Task: structure prediction
Amino acid sequence: MPNNTNSTFQTESYTRTTYTVSRSLLQRGWWVGFLLLFLALLMVCLCLHLVIRVHFREREQQQRRRALDDKAASQRG
Result:
């Protein structure tokens, strides 16, 4: 720290230096990773939706088969 003996404010010369920063490919293309994660989330949601639809469709078919079998058994018996 400079020694200020007189009452006037002394300023030292300031030179602003600029630096070029090289960023990696991942830092420059962060939006690509964000987009890929978003697409992966959409794919997971789509797969879950399809699995649930197939499950309920199979369950409904089994219920209809049971109902038809019960109806046929009651008509026979």
User: Anything to note?
Assistant: The helical segments are 25-28, 30-76. The two ends are 108 Å apart (CA to CA).
